[in-house]
Amino acid sequence: MLSYQDVFLFSIIIIVLFGSSKLPEIGRGLGEAIIRFKKAVSEPETNSNKDESLKIYHKKQS
């Protein structure tokens, strides 16, 4: 089990590595990834889901 000291130390290391300005962006990306993963696990796979995923992927790449 993690103690408060471990969490604090881990937080400080993350801030030093990525900088405080990048943390919201990293958190947002992590949150979106978790939501997509949960959605993908709970929904049955169909061709329309694959098409939507590709559209979202290509839209973000542009």
Q: What is the CA-atom radius of gyration, in angstroms?
A: 17 Å
Class from helix and strand fractions: mainly alpha
Element-by-element helix/strand order: HHH
How many distinct beta strands?
0
Count of domain modules: 1
**Mean of all residue-level pLDDT scores:** 80
Ends apart, CA distance between termini: 42 Å
Summarize the main sheet.
none
Q: Strand-residue fraction?
A: under 5%
SS summary, helix count: 3
State the CATH architecture: Up-down Bundle
- Unreliable stretches (pLDDT < 50, length at least 5) are none
Task: Describe this protein's structure.
It is built from 3 helices and no strands. It starts with a helix and ends with a helix. It has helices at residues 4-18, 23-42, 47-61. It has 62 residues and is mainly alpha-helical.
